[in-house]
């Protein structure tokens, strides 16, 4: 009996060591490099064609009140996602989401993406639209780090202490948004100094110590994976569908949203393929999207947001914050005497949402 108890104690200790190993390795001292913040950002932006394969974990700290249509996005931003990646270049990669019940793989080629559900034997084809909801491949540290730093200015960047990530002495970079409307307080990125590849990204908001998002590689191989690993053709007997993107959504019958050229101090931007009813504002990590809502969707979404703890309900509409992400349903009058409803969403403060809603109301009058 004593021996059996001793053996189980050894097993328990071994499991504890395995679970703690990534954290213990990350705590080891890391060597720094003599690189300026601007030089490090330039390396990150230029790392799009760095080949690698690896295993990553993304942990989201947001709790979003969403409809069934957005359940997948809410899971990505509020739960832990395990990712295996094989990356040859920007148009040739594969990312598998690993769960207890199976895997779902996304394969990128020159024409778009294939998403393959192993359990259901179902494939869907996407064509890389200008507007799309976040998906698991977007959470890879390499992709997220490049995207978030792509529009950061030199004045918004500082160096931070290095850290051990996936066995690499990764150098640290902090992006602190300068916009007064920003709800993100800082983005910390740790980078492989040899390739510029982001290895860990932590997104923080000022109102909590819990990161809104923490994604990191646990294992990394910087050799190019085989082309056969990333290639995909759906089996002949599989069920094939087309991915829905935001261009497929019914944004109402309005020909054009009557939106100003700036909202809450953020300038409006234009993108090819984006409907006129959608206004995109800001840059870098501080962005705001505004869309006209059809009446049948506006009522249910307004009710859902108003039931969320901490919701602000006033004459402008209803608005909530989930970490650095803010949502608002706002009503306004139109020039022909009618009324309209808008959805405002982005990484801005609740005060910025209120300011934007007032400007939209004024433009409508």
From TrEMBL:
<protein>
    <submittedName>
        <fullName>Sigma E regulatory protein, MucB/RseB</fullName>
    </submittedName>
</protein>
